[in-house]
Write a structure and sequence with these properties.
Number of domains of chain A: 2
CATH architecture of the largest domain in chain A: 2-Layer Sandwich
Number of strands of chain B: 5
Number of helices of chain A: 5
Largest interface: A-B, 78 and 75 residues
Radius of gyration of chain B: 20 Å
Oligomer: heterodimer
Radius of gyration of chain A: 19 Å
Order of helices and strands of chain B: HHHEEHEEHE
CATH class of the largest domain in chain A: Alpha Beta
Distance between the termini of chain B: 16 Å
Strand order of the largest sheet of chain B: 3-4-2-5
CATH topology of the largest domain in chain B: Alpha-Beta Plaits
Number of helices of chain B: 5
Order of helices and strands of chain A: HHHEEHEEHEE
Strand order of the largest sheet of chain A: 3-4-2-5
Number of strands of chain A: 6
CATH architecture of the largest domain in chain B: 2-Layer Sandwich
Helix content of chain B: 25-40%
Shape of chain B: elongated
CATH topology of the largest domain in chain A: Alpha-Beta Plaits
Structural class of chain A: alpha+beta
Largest sheet of chain A: 4 strands, antiparallel
């Protein structure tokens, strides 16, 4: 990853033009040409430094449900439960954390009502309770990664 | 804002990513029977309404070296919650800050903040600086570093 890649990542995490030739416009601001920008994005997607190039949706405004959920799983069951949780398409991401609450995942569902039923399905499948911790208030969202 | 069927079609079409080609919006339009101009206008509108938070790059932060990711959770007395939440939200090292429900008795924490860093030691320093500079010594907190990533993909809403 070179200077230009880093500039692309830093700048295009902020915004991307919604216009006739958006890559050309973004490339000009970066001092490269359109084809090079596209090539670099393709490469970084392929190498999985980028997860995606596109919209970041606001789940609730889209009419969907979103929640953070946690589970307390005995260590010798962690692998099995993580796999079972991951198998649900509604699970957007899932991390182990070093705490007795050791599995943390985000659920994204088509409707807010679906959250509860998916939670129950996960509890039935895994045999452990799920602690639902939906966002109640947002004080700050500025998730960007400077490189 | 109520999404029309056409909006939903557009949202679905681009949720996995924009085409990497010189006229991405025209290409999307062709797939769903809209002109390039109409696609552009709808996306601008969805962004103005906040349905689309932003357009562009979503990184895989682990791959970029951000491997020390701490979820710092706080047990804040209810009447101080807004004040503490606002304070944490203004700190440059804090990337997200949300109120979430306690799950008593096992889980007493009601304020969640994320601090993403490259090294654990640095992140722990940020946190102790934060506690001192913001006068949070009286508020119980815990630091949960992320361990293994079991799964990461973009959310699919539709």
């Amino acid at each position: 990853m070179d200077e230009i890649d880093r500039a692309i990542i830093n700048r295009l995490q902020e915004s991307f033009p919604i216009a006739h030739r958006p890559y050309r416009q973004a490339a000009e601001a970066l001092g490269i040409d359109e084809a090079e920008l596209i090539r670099r994005l393709e490469r970084m997607l392929e190498q999985r430094q980028l997860s995606r190039f596109g919209p970041l949706y606001h789940a609730e405004r889209l009419g969907g449900g979103l929640s953070l959920c946690a589970m307390r799983i005995p260590l010798d069951q962690l692998e099995r439960v993580a796999e079972q949780v991951n198998a649900f398409p509604e699970v957007a991401h899932n991390y182990a954390r070093d705490h007795c609450f050791n599995i943390w995942f985000v659920l994204a569902t088509e409707t807010p009502q679906r959250i509860d039923s998916v939670l129950r399905e996960i509890e039935q499948t895994t045999g452990y309770p799920v602690y639902n911790m939906p966002k109640e208030e947002e004080f700050f969202v500025g998730l960007r990664f400077h490189v | 804002m109520v999404l029309s069927d056409q909006d939903r079609q557009l949202v679905t079409e681009i949720q996995g990513g924009l085409p990497l080609s010189s006229h991405p919006y025209a290409e999307i339009g062709e797939r769903i029977g809209l002109s390039e101009q109409a696609v552009i206008e709808r996306i601008v509108e969805l962004q103005a309404e906040g349905v689309i938070k932003r357009m562009g790059i979503v990184v895989r932060h682990h791959e970029l070296g951000y491997t020390a990711n701490a979820m710092v959770v706080w047990d804040v007395p209810d009447k101080q919650l807004d004040e503490v939440g606002e304070k944490l939200g203004t700190q440059s090292c804090v990337t997200l800050c949300y109120q979430r429900p306690r799950r008593l008795p096992e889980w007493p924490y009601n304020l969640f903040s994320m601090i993403h860093g490259k090294e654990r030691e640095r992140v722990l320093d940020y946190i102790s600086d934060l506690v001192k500079s913001q006068g949070l010594e009286q508020i119980p907190h815990q630091v949960l570093f992320s361990g293994r990533r079991f799964k990461q993909r973009g959310a699919r809403y539709i």
